[in-house]
Automatic annotation (TrEMBL):
This is Cupin domain-containing protein. InterPro entries: Bacilysin_H2HPP_isomerase, Cupin_2, KdgF, RmlC-like_jellyroll, RmlC_Cupin_sf. PANTHER family: H2HPP ISOMERASE. Gene3D superfamilies: Jelly Rolls. It comes from Puniceibacterium sediminis. It holds the Pfam family Cupin_2. The lineage of its organism: Bacteria, Pseudomonadati, Pseudomonadota, Alphaproteobacteria, Rhodobacterales. Residues 34-86 form the Cupin type-2 domain.
Length: 103
């Protein structure tokens, strides 16, 4: 049972922790409309992203690429990254170690 709150992270974007452990955290990011943004940022955690639904244009470091349902990729520790929603949906991110700032 998930008891973590849904948190707004920007216009038409929410975050909800799905599960956590000191070594790993799983988080759902939901994008409610085309053009919603996951702002460029970086963190020391390694992140894997799975596209549960929707379509997105990602920037990771100096690379830009599009992903859609079923795609996945890894963001290395310290890499500047973010996305723009092309088609509303949900991204499932895993972080290691967990993002204590999300608790």
């Amino acid at each position: 049972m998930n008891t973590f709150p849904v948190v707004s992270t920007g216009e038409d974007v929410t975050r909800q922790v799905l599960s956590d452990h000191p070594d790993l955290m799983v988080v759902a990011f939901r994008f409610g409309k085309t053009g919603a943004e996951g702002a460029l940022h970086d963190h020391p955690h390694v992140q894997s992203t799975y596209v549960e639904s929707g379509r997105y244009r990602f920037t990771v470091g100096d690379r830009e690429f599009e992903v859609s349902k079923g795609d996945s990729f890894v963001v290395p520790s310290g890499a500047r990254h973010g996305c723009v929603c092309i088609e509303p949906g949900c991204l499932v991110d895993c972080f290691t170690p967990r993002r204590d700032d999300f608790l």
